[in-house]
C-alpha cells in the first residue's frame, strides 16, 4: 500500500496501545495469530491462511501487556487495563492447555492445527525461543519453565561443536511448508543453525533461573573470540573473531563456520546478556539496579560504566551482605542494590557484596 500522513495524531502511548490492541486476535487454540511470521520471519507460511498460531508470540505479548498495564492505569484508561489483563490471563491458560507439549513448550500451530515444535514433529521438534521466553515473560509455572529450559539445553546446546541451536532437527524432508526458512540448507541460519540473536535469550532465561554457570557457559560459547583461539579454530570459523556473527552453521561439512557478521541485533543483545543477565546490572531511568550474579570459580568482577560525565567503577566481591555501602547506594535486600545516577562528573567507586547462598535462595 502507499503510506500517507494520517488525519489523526496521538501520544506515544496511544500509538503503542493501538499496536497492542491490533495484536490481540487469537486462533482456535486461543494463541496469537502468527500471520506471515513472528520473530522468525522465515516461518512465513505457518499461518498464511490466517489461522496459524504462535506460542512464542503469546509469551512476548504477555510480557508486553504486563509492561503496559501500569502505563494505562496511570492514564486512567480503565477499559484497556481490564481488557489487557483479561487477554493476558486468557493467553496464560491457552499456553498451559495447548502450548505445553509434555516436556517443553511448542512453537505454534500451522493453519491446519498441526503442531509446530512438538515431540510428534519430524522436524523442528524443540525451538529455543519458546522455552526462553516462558521464563523471561515470567508467565510459565516454575516447574514447567525449569523443565523446558533443561530440555532446551540438553537438546540444543552442543559444547563439542561450540554451537547452540535455534531449533532441532532442521527442516529438510517434511511435507509441511513452514516458509522460506525451509529454503536454507539444513543447519544454515535460522534453519536449525545457531541463530545468535534468538539463542542469546537462553542466557537471560538460565540466569533468571539462578543457573549462572550455565548462562556463563552459553555466553562464552557465543563470544566470537572463543571461536578463533587457535589456527585450526580460526580456519573452521572463517569469519572475524571480533564481531558477532548472526549465525554459526551446525551441519557437516560446515559445522562451526560463522555466517553473517557485524550483525547489530545479535551484538546488542549479547552486550545486554553479559551486563544485565550475567552480571545483574540494569539501568532504570536515573537508577542502576544491581542484582549481583557470579559463575562458580569467580571471586568477583569489576565493571566500569560511563554515564554522561560521570564514571562508575563498580566492584562486586564475595563477602558478607553487611558490607558498608557508599553514599547514594541503597540495599533493597541482601542480593539487590540501587545506585543513584548523576551527571556531576568525576569518578564514583562503589563496592558491593555477593552472597552466593542468599542469591541462590532469591533465584528460587
Question: Your description of this structure?
Answer:
This protein is α+β, with helices and mostly antiparallel strands. Helices cover 36% and strands 17% of the residues. The protein has a 4-stranded antiparallel β-sheet. A 3-stranded antiparallel β-sheet has the order 1-2-3. A hairpin with a 2-residue loop joins strand 10 and strand 11 (287-290). Helix 2 (55-74) packs parallel to helix 4, helix 4 runs antiparallel to helix 5 and helix 4 runs parallel beside helix 6. The longest helix has 22 residues, at 78-99. The N and C termini lie far apart (50 Å).
Class by SSE composition: alpha+beta
Kindly state the mean pLDDT as a whole number? 94
Number of strands: 16
- In DSSP terms, counting alpha (H) and pi (I) runs of 4 or more, how many helices? 10
Helix content: 25-40%
Measured between the Cα atoms of the first and last residue, the distance is 50 Å
Sheet with the most strands, sense and barrel status: 4 strands, antiparallel
Characterize the overall form. globular
Rg, alpha carbons:
22 Å
- Residue fraction in strands: 15-25%
Order of strands, widest sheet: 10-11-15-14
Secondary-structure element order, as H and E? HEHHEEEHHEEEEHHHEHEEEEEEEH
Low-confidence stretches: none
Amino acid at each position: 500500500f502507499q503510506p500517507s500522513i494520517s488525519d489523526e495524531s496521538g501520544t506515544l502511548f496511544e500509538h503503542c496501545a493501538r499496536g497492542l490492541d491490533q495484536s490481540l486476535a487469537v486462533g482456535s487454540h486461543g494463541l496469537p495469530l502468527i500471520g506471515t511470521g513472528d520473530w522468525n520471519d522465515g516461518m512465513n507460511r505457518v499461518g498464511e491462511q490466517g489461522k496459524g498460531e504462535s506460542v512464542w508470540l503469546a509469551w512476548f505479548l504477555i510480557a508486553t501487556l504486563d509492561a503496559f498495564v501500569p502505563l494505562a492505569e496511570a492514564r486512567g484508561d480503565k477499559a484497556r487495563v481490564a481488557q489487557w489483563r483479561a487477554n493476558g490471563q486468557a493467553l496464560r491458560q491457552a499456553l498451559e492447555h495447548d502450548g505445553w507439549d509434555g516436556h517443553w513448550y511448542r512453537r505454534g500451530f500451522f493453519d491446519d492445527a498441526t503442531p509446530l515444535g512438538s515431540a510428534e514433529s519430524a522436524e523442528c521438534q524443540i525451538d529455543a525461543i519458546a522455552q526462553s521466553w516462558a521464563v523471561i515473560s515470567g508467565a510459565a509455572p516454575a516447574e514447567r519453565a525449569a523443565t523446558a529450559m533443561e530440555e532446551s539445553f540438553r537438546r540444543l546446546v552442543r559444547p563439542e561443536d561450540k554451537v547452540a541451536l535455534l531449533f532441532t532437527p532442521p527442516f529438510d524432508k517434511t511435507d509441511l511448508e513452514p516458509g522460506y526458512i525451509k529454503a536454507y540448507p539444513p543447519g544454515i541460519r535460522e534453519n536449525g543453525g545457531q541463530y545468535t540473536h534468538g539463542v542469546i535469550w537462553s542466557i537471560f532465561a538460565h540466569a533468571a533461573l539462578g543457573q549462572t554457570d550455565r548462562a556463563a557457559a552459553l555466553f562464552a560459547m557465543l563470544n566470537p573470540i572463543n571461536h578463533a583461539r587457535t589456527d585450526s579454530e580460526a580456519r573452521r570459523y572463517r569469519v572475524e573473531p571480533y564481531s558477532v556473527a548472526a549465525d554459526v552453521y551446525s551441519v557437516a561439512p560446515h559445522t562451526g563456520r560463522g555466517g553473517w557478521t557485524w550483525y547489530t541485533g545479535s551484538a546488542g543483545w549479547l552486550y545486554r546478556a553479559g551486563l544485565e543477565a550475567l552480571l545483574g546490572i540494569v539501568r532504570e531511568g536515573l537508577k542502576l539496579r544491581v542484582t549481583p550474579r557470579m559463575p562458580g570459580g569467580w571471586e568477583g568482577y569489576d565493571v566500569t560504566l560511563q554515564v554522561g560525565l560521570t564514571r562508575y567503577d563498580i566492584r562486586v566481591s564475595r563477602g558478607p551482605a553487611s558490607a558498608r555501602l557508599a553514599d547514594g547506594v541503597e540495599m533493597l535486600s541482601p542480593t539487590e542494590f540501587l545506585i543513584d545516577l548523576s551527571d556531576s562528573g568525576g569518578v564514583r567507586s562503589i563496592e558491593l557484596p555477593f552472597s552466593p547462598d542468599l542469591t541462590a535462595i532469591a533465584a528460587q
